[in-house]
User: What shape does this take?
Amino acid sequence: MNTINNLLNAASFAAKYHTGQTRKGERGEPYINHPLEVANLIANVGGIDDIDILMAAILHDTVEDCGVTRDEIASLFGETVASYVLEVTDDKSLPKAERKRLQIEHAPHLSTGAKIVKLADKISNITDITNSPPADWTIERRREYVEWGSSVVAGLRGVNAKLEAHFDSLVTRARSAVEQAA
Assistant: This one.
């Protein structure tokens, strides 16, 4: 099977499992927009065409948010993709504060592919917090998310200069937007 077929299969799989889910932002966008944006950032900002990384980007929230198993991903999309997805998957049985702390702690130790997915994920999330924040998020919560995301990305540095520059520019805009909203 060629790489385009694999990528489209991953997109179809993710769309099926994310059906009915929406983003937290005020616009309530379909959740599938997020993993597609993560893959798009990797390809079109980061200049990366590694099919395993792109498939992992599309599938990155299916284990954490949809109940898909690592074995399902491995059998359909390969061990490398499954490994990347598992590396960026939070353990939802832990308290939120602990999950956030562990993301910062684990970031420097991720594989290159997982670091790229995690970096693009943070870009997508901070973009959403800036452009369409959840209605119930206070200014302080938005500020804290941007700073926490920056702490996670500090451990990912050196993986892709273009994505990192995009992130840095975004964080500058996000901080400004939060202060203007205050």
User: Anything to note?
Assistant: The two ends are 52 Å apart (CA to CA). Residues 161-181 form the longest helix (21 residues). The mean pLDDT is 96.
